[in-house]
Amino acid sequence: MLPSANRSNTLSSSPNRLSASASPPASWRQRPCPEGAFDSHPADLTCGEWHTSDGRFTLSVVILRYLQNDKQATPLLYLQGGPGAGAGIGDKRSLQRWRDWRDFSGLRRDLILVDRRGTGGSQPRQICEAYERFSREVLGRNLELQQEWREAQQVLDTCLAAAPGFNPADYGTLISAADIQQLGVALGIARWHVLGVSYGSRLALALASAPKAGSETRPAVASMVLDSVYPPGEGGLIDWPDTLARALDGFYRACVDDADCVQAWREQGFSAAIDPSQLQAKLFASLALLRRAPMRVDVQVAGLPRRVVVNDHRLLAAVFAASYHRHRWSDVIRALGAVEQRERAPLARLMQLFVSQALSDSITSFTFMAVDCRDNRLGREQEFEAAVARHPLLAPFLKGMWQGQICQRWPQGAPLELPAPPARVALLAGKFDPITPVAWARELHRHWPASKLTEFGGIGHHVLGSKSCALAQLEDYLSGQRQRFDDCTEH
């Protein structure tokens, strides 16, 4: 039963909201860094807030300074994925991770990190508390997928009705690009290198194509590194049936040559090599079994145990989530065997990853939805149904999705366009990336033939986060000592 429409169901802002009127629009102000951020470190941090030109948002910004004598003059702007994810700059521990990232990569320049609108420490960061609560509680119930969608939509509609101040038109990639460009002008940056990961690569492309910031010249892009390319015109609901099918097919094929997958496969009693069609059959047999007889396993949510119901659609979601990460592929194989044997532990291990991602506080759900709706073409119902028809095995997990899509009631933004390429562009793609497939990087490379495309074998999403040997090449590329990244996955 849904809770009644009361204050707890409304969109709320995160604590300690900064008023947009606290500073004139389009202004930069330094502020104290998180407590303890300077412990055992030299004063290498500048923390501040950027007040956007529309006066609606205050964005958190951190500049991690490089203080050694071999410092390179041109800073690196890091654009994280998402689009509802913050930069991870809100506390001492997070900032230490960024120091470690900088030191491991050998970066010899300043690093600029920004919480975009509605993410991380930006204000307002509007949260539908009832939706977050529903997302936790529904995992303990055995609902058909379409019923779960309907209940979630009712919760969202209640939040939106009670929060007329939330305007999805305040979000979008072009708007974020303008925010960041104006910030660069205020910081006096003439040139910067731009590293965009996943959604951040789309934002990087928009940043390169954005108009001048008022009367000021925007910072020039000295070079661009796009990791897990997400170009304009790709993604969104209309592409989801093909995206899901492609991700699963990629997982089946990737496991064939993965040593951990092969070991897990043999543990199931198979002596022959993995056959992709056999692995597919094993997955759908497990889905059918859980549809008839769901299992219950215990996972950790915010440090506390929670029992979740694993039915067919939740297992499929967990398999998709695991396909992002090579080290999780073997967990899928073991979980499928566990379903057959009705063993909880291997299934719980797989579900833990899915639950941690789905309920992560680092993702702001409404911001994700708003940007996704603004950026991506909704398409027509007939198009979506035709895509579903191409994948009959997946049809039970796709039927009804288009009709309940919130983007139908939210305004779309201006179409995103591909800009002229910067002088130096590196494209990085994992050959088994399920969500930003290598084909997207290849297509961008076709439009930008001077770009340098490197395909990394045997890995999925986020190359620089998956292979330390790839991250170790970053500074050499930025400084011009190498002209492309090398595939180091076999080294």
Automatic annotation (TrEMBL):
GO terms for molecular function: hydrolase activity. Keywords: Hydrolase. SUPFAM superfamilies: alpha/beta-Hydrolases. Belongs to the peptidase S33 family. InterPro entries: AB_hydrolase_1, AB_hydrolase_fold, Serine_prot/Carboxylest_S33. Residues 12-27 have a biased composition (Low complexity). It comes from the Bacteria. This is Alpha/beta fold hydrolase. Residues 75-464 form the AB hydrolase-1 domain. Residues 1-11 have a biased composition (Polar residues). The keyword Magnesium does not apply. Residues 1-35 are annotated as: Disordered.
